[in-house]
Structures are given as C-alpha cells and as structure tokens.
Specification:
Blueprint (H helix, E strand, L loop, with lengths): L30 H5 L28 H10 L1 H6 L5 E5 L2 E5 L15 E6 L4 H5 L6 E8 L4 E10 L2 E11 L6 H12 L1 H5 L2 E10 L6 E6 L4 H4 L7 E7 L8 E8 L5 E9 L2 E9 L1
Parallel strand pairs: 1-6, 3-9, 7-12
Antiparallel strand pairs: 1-2, 3-10, 4-5, 4-9, 5-6, 7-8, 10-11, 11-12
Amino acid sequence: MMKHSVFFLLATTTAAIAFTACGHNDGRLSGNDLAADSVKADTNNVDFEEEPYVEPSRHVDVLFEDFLYTFLTDAKFQAHRIAYPLPRTHNGRKEMVAKGQWTYTPLYANDDSYVLMFDQTNADVSAQDSTSKHVTLEWCDFDAQTSRQFVFDKMDGKWLLTGLVCDSLNHRSDNGFYTFFHRFATDSLFRQQHISNPFAFKTIDTDSYQAIDGVLDAEQWPDFAPDIPAGHLTHIAYGRRHPASHTRTIVITGADTGASCALRFRYQRGKWTLYSMEDV
C-alpha cells in the first residue's frame, strides 16, 4: 500500500482531476466548456511533446487507490491514462473528447479538508481488492447542483479513464442522501435531529495510541464533531452495480495532516441518521 492513499482511513492527501470536459450549457463541447472549471488551474492543456513520457512502475496499477493518487497529482500521467477519444455525456447528449482537448485542472487540492462517500461499510475491503476492474468516481457540487461521474476500467493491466457523465444532481439515484447530507452539514438543528441517541464513538488515545470504544449522547456531538465541508462530496463506488444500501460512510480527511473522521449513517424508519463516529 502506498503511503499516499486517497482512500478513507488511509488517506493522506489528494489533489486534482480534469473535470473541464463537462460544460454547463446545452451540452455542446466548446472551448468555453473546456475552460469552464479551470478557474484555479495551475496547468492547462498538457503538452504531450514537451518531454518523453515515462510510464511509472506497474505497482501503480495493482490497487485503484494507488493509481488514483498518481492520476490526481501527475498531469502527464493523467493525460496518458485516458482512453481517447473519451466518450462524454452531458445532460444526455453524447460527444467525444479528443486528446488535445483534455485539461488538467486542480479541484480540491487547496482545500483544508475533503469529503469521500462510500455506500458500503466494508469499503476498505474493496479498496484493498487487487481484482477490481471497474470503479466510478462521482464528484457532487452542491452549489451548482451537478454530478460528474468518472468511469475507470482496468484494461490490459492498466487503469484508464473510459467515460465521463455530467448530469444534474436531481437525476442521480442517490440524490436523497446527497440532499440529506448537505442539510446535515449546514443546518445545526436538522443535524441534531438526525443523530442517534446514543451513538457509537471510537477514537485513539493520544498517549497510549490504544483504541477507545464507547458511546456518546447526541447532546455531546458538538464537543467531538469534526468540521464538515459542505460544498462538495466525492463518491467512490467499486464494481459495476451495488444493491440498494441503507448505509453510507462519509469520511472527512485533512489534506495536510491526513487525519480522518468516519461518519456512518443508516436509513431506518423513513429517515437517515448518524449512528457512529470514528476518529482515525
């Protein structure tokens, strides 16, 4: 396992991904579309002829999370790990993104913390599964109410970005949880009403480094709660299909420290409720 994992519990940092192929107009691919999300970009279109590309060790492709770290942080690697022409669907309209149109764009590299979501409680097992062949990474922008899905497939032993789907959050099957979580992150009264009483709590003793398991009353949540970024959420799903799940795991990670907090939610009696918090 590389020390720079992007997966929760092991996450230490993350950086960027090229999302500029998703425009915000009628779906036609244009120069404006390609630059629409490049406000903070340090590097625009990658110069493929600038210097010879050297493929990294094949170990980068053993686990998806190791590949993803390199894909996010190395512009030249990213540009060479895309299946061109890349199929891109925007609001139901299909187009193709050519090699020269791809733009490397930092996304939440400069954020103090970032949020990952997994729809299975044993997602760490999936992250450690070297037999994975298909992963979808979805970027949810709550302000713009948009979803951008990046489809990765392992082909001939190498992970490649094979598809891009841009849509409204309202059209996503998981929009119910997305709507709930955004309100949970931004509305303190709503949040307090959706915390189990008591809820499970786990942390690490900073002196002995031993795990401490217990429970807390809902009223104690403000004393232990992490800051929850409310603007964006990244959903990582392993495999082609997942059965309808009544649990979600949200992991908040500090980009500088690598410290993470896992929040676990379950849907019962008609509503989502936080039932566990774990400091990692």
